[in-house]
Each structure stands twice: as structure tokens, then as C-alpha cells.
Amino acid sequence: MDSRVRRAFYIGRFQPFHLGHHKVISEISKNVDELVIGIGSAQDSHTPENPFTAGERIMMISRGLKDLALQYYVIPISDVYRNAIWVSHVKSMTPPFSSVYSNNPLVSRLFNEAGYAVLYSPMYNRTEYSGTEIRRRMLSGEEWKHLVPEEVVDVIDEIKGIERLKEVAMKGDIETLE
Amino acid sequence: MDSRVRRAFYIGRFQPFHLGHHKVISEISKNVDELVIGIGSAQDSHTPENPFTAGERIMMISRGLKDLALQYYVIPISDVYRNAIWVSHVKSMTPPFSSVYSNNPLVSRLFNEAGYAVLYSPMYNRTEYSGTEIRRRMLSGEEWKHLVPEEVVDVIDEIKGIERLKEVAMKGDIETLE
Amino acid sequence: MDSRVRRAFYIGRFQPFHLGHHKVISEISKNVDELVIGIGSAQDSHTPENPFTAGERIMMISRGLKDLALQYYVIPISDVYRNAIWVSHVKSMTPPFSSVYSNNPLVSRLFNEAGYAVLYSPMYNRTEYSGTEIRRRMLSGEEWKHLVPEEVVDVIDEIKGIERLKEVAMKGDIETLE
Amino acid sequence: MDSRVRRAFYIGRFQPFHLGHHKVISEISKNVDELVIGIGSAQDSHTPENPFTAGERIMMISRGLKDLALQYYVIPISDVYRNAIWVSHVKSMTPPFSSVYSNNPLVSRLFNEAGYAVLYSPMYNRTEYSGTEIRRRMLSGEEWKHLVPEEVVDVIDEIKGIERLKEVAMKGDIETLE
Amino acid sequence: MDSRVRRAFYIGRFQPFHLGHHKVISEISKNVDELVIGIGSAQDSHTPENPFTAGERIMMISRGLKDLALQYYVIPISDVYRNAIWVSHVKSMTPPFSSVYSNNPLVSRLFNEAGYAVLYSPMYNRTEYSGTEIRRRMLSGEEWKHLVPEEVVDVIDEIKGIERLKEVAMKGDIETLE
Amino acid sequence: MDSRVRRAFYIGRFQPFHLGHHKVISEISKNVDELVIGIGSAQDSHTPENPFTAGERIMMISRGLKDLALQYYVIPISDVYRNAIWVSHVKSMTPPFSSVYSNNPLVSRLFNEAGYAVLYSPMYNRTEYSGTEIRRRMLSGEEWKHLVPEEVVDVIDEIKGIERLKEVAMKGDIETLE
């Protein structure tokens, strides 16, 4: 790896990309030259927990970070459902990085066991800036637009994301058809 | 596709095939020339929710529909666990169809996004004519035979289905061995 | 299994379904009550060796067997790429059968090891009635229609099958993009 | 199979290998010449229910059985998530065996349907000698070392197993990243 | 999709990214606002045909396109080995696009069947600007650096790519161990 | 890992286990305390290149090594078809080891990139002691028994291995049915 570049890794599901994510990335950007942003559970979409496709999430992140002067890479990371190989999987799909920002204990553990330096990612208001909370608001008709970047509101509008979320949240999944 | 033939798609898990399914298909048959019947979660069997194999379910449907003058195709559809590719998966395994009958919001949504006309499937008494309810009755020793076509009773007898259901419902699965 | 019904299994890839297949099934039908027809490599399509989807092949078989008074089931069988579990895979997707018709040594071996009676399938002119030969003729513009049932010609016309075959045969596959 | 050797199969997840397992195997060893020990859910690790890798569990079993004069084979068995093919999967990965020891109803059912003799495995105190209970004690800081063979304590020490379990039990998994 | 943005899709394996790719993308950039660049066979690496990981290829492309004023997205596309679902797979992983640039007949066919406009990608000298040719030169010690952007030479140097290619090209693969 | 134990890793496909393998392991045993023996392509069987199941190969190795005073572990390693994650896959399925014996350039490369010491495995007559050569002899009826340990001859006899090899070598595979 080019040792002159400080490149870090940060992963989330971004369902949707919200201002909490934006704040974290903004803080991280002060300490690194480049950031690799992994989109977790990239293969999932059209479920209550993962309404948006990886492609739609890439759009949200790319537009939502336009105000940031940071060289970043957005990479879909599909689940492999095997923790012991997950770090190798991530490494093979991403530009090389030397540090990881995460507050998730499992992510930290796995990267630690693989020899990586894991740093706490900056804090933000996790009660409101939470994908779970934002999806709950979307479903109940409460206000949510102030919790995400303006550009994300546009993306969700364009793909009729609220309508989709409401429909897929109504009942069951393909694996439990009557 | 041959535009002279009106061919529709209908999917269920058919655990087991019951009189509610029969009624729906009977109603649909008035509006179509041919029906493609997908067997969902085809790969599953020997679980409390999916006691019967795809092959056994094919037997139930084929025998249970003998009284119906309808050209139909019964096709096992294995789960792919990715909603975004599910419609393509179904299409590749089935004769071409132009409409879909479903009351499941997710199935409707996915076919809608793929450009298909989705029609409400006819209604029936969903409290009793329900796979979940019938399996519950099978387990508790309550009466269930009046809820399925006679031929399905025969199939379940032949494969000793009640015995199997009771055994697999007793405890856990292969993924949670002590 | 219902012991009164003699049910057998026969598998092919049916790329496309041709008069050799028709003759074999016609001969088998004299000795059985019902036939389970497996469509091998069901997941494949749009390749030079497997141009047609499982759904399209189901159409070919269903129409091509209309003149036969035989109760049959057409079931897509996706490859599992593990010979040791293949028979279990087939069994789970099909109505129960007691005998297998096959001239393929591997198929025979695997069913034999699983305790099945395997019978030689009836012979026919394998030089002309061959999927490989028919696809070669389709590509080179030679005559092929006399080698398949009329109804199969119709299906291939409807799906513009020759055009598709010619395009997918031109170069490489998704795994070898430049 | 060599008919002179009585070889049996026994499967568990061994998270961790404990004295209950040891007692069962010790009892079985009186009735067989050789034992095939399957490690279930071999692909899983770094989760609250499956903290240890298959390799680590092999270590625990091998060292923990050192006091037993039994010819045994320890084989990782990855989940296939399809009950109908599970027995074939197990058979392909293991030396041939003629009987199965299990108290798990699903395991018994699947081997029974495949024609195997299934024997009840010997009883032991399942309240204390339980992987679930031992992992609970590990997490809460209660005593657990008396429930496993000494050698297993050593293995868990060497791999810093308690620390790992505590970290991976803290929150979520890779599939539910915020 | 935002109808004001003309966004196109272009896919290659980029083993490695070379001046032919650069020229194509440069030409396409005159006709579109944004370009989605798919990295095919993203899961492959350390083979004679696919020596570089998806992450390394992302580096090559990102650095190699620095001189181009184009908004682009580089997305790893893992193989799904099923042509019938491939377009859905690509769509789910990418920002929405309305046109596809490709000279590959299969890619064109699949996108055409899915209703996409497929345009011929601009021509370049395919004899020299070819991944196969460049890898051949790397192996035989011939000159290759003039065929790729300078930045790609740097990336390959950093990861010791030539050494890796030579080693993995020496003999067999994991599936054919002696 | 327990630093007092020198544990190494050695992998082959063992189709079948022959005297060359025996010699290598015998030599390695002089330098290590324990050896982890990986069975590559464990999921394959009933093919001309991989006639024997993982379980059968375990039998061959266990019996064939009876004359050796070495603590070893025989572990089936299924292919993952992704070189970048292969070492992690192996590690998760095996007791921890600190060195690797291999002459295969890809295996060496992958373990080297993962930070392992890779040692050349001892030499033997690779022209005769070769799985490929032994299978060729089995098929052509030439002498092969002097190339494997006596116990391996017994195993192959018990499972009627020559008969199986001859049948599966006759024609094609499940993926190329006519």
C-alpha cells in the first residue's frame, strides 16, 4: 500500500444515509486522506429493515457527501454470513486501508483479530440519528426529513421510497408466503 | 410470448395445499387460459413451518386440482434471499405469464416494480383456510381434514406427514444442536 | 409412496426438447403410470450450450407431449455441483418415484448407490436427435426443424430463440469480460 | 463398509465441548469400535451462540478426549440449510457409519428416513452440562470451569475465548449494522 | 430516477485497467453526465486471468481516471453464474442508469431483453489494449507499461502485482491440488 | 495458540492417498509436533478427477498413517472458489498452526500474503506417486496397488472404488446431460 496515503474504513447499512453518518464521516475526514465507505448487507432490499438497494444507497451517500472535500470510495459489501472470513471478504473488495473506524463490538473484534487498528468513530445523537428510528418515522407518517441530508430526501422521493417501505413493511417476506 | 394465451402466475408455500388455495385457483381459472403455480420456499422441508418437500407439495396440488379443467404448471421456486432479483429468478423458471394474482404486499410490489399487472387474488376464509392454522391443528390433534381436499389427506397419509410434523416440531433445528 | 402407481424419473437438459426425447418418453410411457421429467441445469440460460431458460423448456415439453396420453410432471432441477448430494436434491424436488430411466453412467451410478432401480432408456438415433447437433444447425443456418416436435418450433419462434442463440454464441460469457 | 468395524455417528455444536459431551461419548464408546464426531454449524464463529471456530472446537474435543481409549474422527459439518439433503451431506464428509446416537428429534427423523438405526444417546445432567448455560455463565462472570474438561479451559484461555464471547455478545451482528 | 441526469453503465474486468478502457470511458464521457463503471468477476483474484482483487482494480480505475472531468461510480459486480438474473443483480448494486455501453454480445443481449438501450462502446486498438495481452507480456517479461495509465503502473508496483501474477500463473489452482 | 506445540498445515486432494503423500508426511513429522492435514475439494466426489468422497479419503489417510507416531488432524476443506478468502476459510476450520508445507505456488502465495511461513514440502517421485497417474492406471487396468499404502487398497476395495471410477469416467457430468 502506498504509505503516504492515510486511508481508513468505515461501514454501515445506510438505510437510509442520515446526518449522523454525515457527521461521523465529516469528523473522520479530519484525520485521514481517503475513506473507504462500505455499504453493509448490500444484497438486501425491499424489506422493512433494508428498504433500499445498494445502488440507491450509493446515490444517497454520493450526493449527501457533496459538501465534503474528501476522497472517498463507496463499496457495496454483501453479507457472507461467516464472521471468520468477513474481514478477508471486505479486504478483497476494497482499496487497502490501515485503520478502521467503528463502535460496533463485532466489527472491532474481527478487525482486531486480523491485526488492524480500530478507532472509535466519533459520537453523535444516536437516538434520533438512527436508521431504525428514521424508518419508524417514515412508516408512521412522522417527520423524518430533518434527520437526513437534503439530497437524501431527493433520492428517496425519486425512487418513491416511502411508498415502497410502507408496502414491504405490511406483511411477511418471500420466505413466509401463505 | 404467445399473445393468444392468457397465462397468469400464482405463488404459495402450500404447507399443505388446502381448500382456500383450491378456491382461489378455481376463481382465477375463470379469467385465464393457463396458470403457473409457483411453490415458494421449495428448498425447505422437515421444519415446523415447512414440513413437506417440494415434491410432496407437487403431489398435493396435482391431485387436489384433478377436478379443475385448467391447464396449469406447478413449479418449485427455491428462495434466493434477495428481493431485488426474485422476479428475474421466478421468470427464468416459469413459462411466460402476463399477470400475477397475489394479495401479498411484497410479491405485489416486486412484480409491480418489474412492470407486471398484479391482480388481487380472490378472497376466502383465511382464518381456517390457513397453512399455519392447519399445521397447528395437526400438531394438537384437532380436526384438519375438512380444510384440505380429500386427495391431500391421502398424500399426507402416504408420507406419514403428521408423524413427521410432530417430530420436527419437537425441538430446534440442525443449526441449533446442543 | 402410493404403491399402486408406477412412477419413474427421466432427466435431460432439453436444449431444446427434440424428437429423440419424445420417442424415449413415448416408449417409457408404455411401462409406467406416471413420469417425472427433470429439467437439468435449470438455472442456466443464454449460453451456447444452454440457450433456453427452464421456463421456456417447460413450454417446449408441455406442448411437445400433448399427443401423449401420459400423466407427467415437469420439474426444473438446478445444479448443485456436488454429486454426493444430487440424488437427495432431486428427490426433494420431485414426487416420489421407484425407478429411473437413464443411459448416462453418472446418473445411473448415483441412483444405484442410493438404492434405486435404474433402467436403460430406450434407444433412438442419437447422431441427429441430439441437442448439440441441433444447436450447431441453428447456428450454422442448416435445417433443424424436422428434428423437434412442431410445437417446439413454435416456442422457439415466439421467444426468438435462434436470434438469441446466435448472439450468446458469438463471444465469451459474463465471467470473461475484457 | 468394513463390516467388522462398528462405527457410529454423534453430532453436536460443542460451543464449548463440556463434560456432558464427554460422558455421552464415554458411554457410547462401550458399544462401538469407532466414533465419528460431527461438529455442527462448523462455519459459524464469533457469535453469542457460536463463539468458537470449528478449528478451536476440534482442539477442545481432541484434547478433552485424550483420556478415552477410543478411535474417533472429528469432522466439521457446515450447515446446508436444507433438511432434505442434510444426511447426504453428512455422509459425504464422514467415514461410513452404521448407527447414529442422537436425542434430537430432527436429527433422528432425518437419519430414520434415510434408513439408519438411531439410538438414544446416554443421558446426563442437561441443566448444567449445556452449552447455553455455560456461555451464560461465561458472560455473567459465574463459575463455568468445572463444567468442561480441564483441557478445554486451557484451549479457551489460549484463544482468549471469554474476552471474545463478551465482545461479540455485546451488540448485533454484521447483518444489522446501524 | 432523476430524469435530468444522463447516466450510463459500462462494465469490464479491468485485469488490469488499461489505456483502451481509458479511451472508451473518455469517449463515453462526452455523451453522458455520469458513468457507472462495473468491475466484473469482482470476487476473483490471484488467478492467471484475474490476478488483481476488486479493491486493487478500484484503485487502478480511480487513479487512472483522475485526468477526466467525469462523475463516475466504480462498483464491484460479483459473478452470479446465472445469466437470467444478471441484469437484476447489476441493477440492485448500481445507481440507476438509462443506457449501457458494450460491445459484448451477451451483455448487450441481456440488457436488451431487459428493455435497455445498448450502445456500441467506442473502438480502440484491441490487439494491444487487451487485458489478456498485457498479462501475457507481464508474464513473459515484455514491455507492458506503455499500455496502461501511469497511475496503474504505480498501483501494480505497490502491490507487487507482477510477482503475484507470475506465482499464481505457475501451476493449477486450489481446486486441482495434487 | 499454545506456543509450546509446533503445529503445521499440509493440504492435498488425496484422490487417492498414496505413498508420495505418506512419505511427505513422514518427513514433515520429524520437524513438527502435530500436523493438520487438509483434504482439498472436500465437496467433490464421483468425478474422474475426484472419485472419492471426503469421508472415504479420511478413511484412507487415517488407516494409511497408522504406522506413523504423529498427532495429526484430518480436516475436509470445501472449495470456496475465491482465492482472497481461502486462507481465512482454512484457518476457521483447523486447529491453529504456525507453518505451512507446500510446493504449490498458489497455496504458498496465499499463505505468504497472510503472513505465514511456508516451507517446501519434502520431495518424492512425482511421476509415479501422483493421483492423476494412479487414477489413469485404475482406469486402464494397469497396476496401481504398489503406489498406495496397503490400507488404501483395502478402503478402495471396500467401497468398490475402481468400479465407481470407471463408471463416472465414462461420460460427462450432471451439468452436461443430453
From TrEMBL, chains A, B, C, D, E, F:
Keywords: ATP-binding, Cytoplasm, NAD, Nucleotide-binding, Nucleotidyltransferase, Pyridine nucleotide biosynthesis, Transferase. GO terms for molecular function: ATP binding; nicotinamide-nucleotide adenylyltransferase activity. It catalyses: beta-nicotinamide D-ribonucleotide + ATP + H(+) = diphosphate + NAD(+). Its EC number is 2.7.7.1. It is found in: Cytoplasm. The keyword Transferase applies. Residues 9-137 form the Cytidyltransferase-like domain. Belongs to the archaeal NMN adenylyltransferase family. This is Nicotinamide-nucleotide adenylyltransferase.
